[in-house]
Amino acid sequence: MDIDERKEEREKFQSENLLSIIRKEIYPDVYTFPKREKKDRPDIVLAICKKRIGIEVTECYPSNYISKEDKNKGKKPLCKKKNYNWLMKECEDFKKNPYFVELTKDQCYRIQIFTTNAVYRGKHHNEFQKELIEHIEAIRYKRYPISTKLIWRIKVKPSSPYSYVDCFHTSSPWPVNWKDILREIEKKEKQSVEYEHTDELWLNIYIPWVENIVSYEINIEDADLSAIRERLKQSRFQRIYLSSLREQDTLVLKTNNGTDMLDEKHCFSITAK
Question: What is the mean pLDDT of residues 73-99?
Answer without folding.
Answer: 86
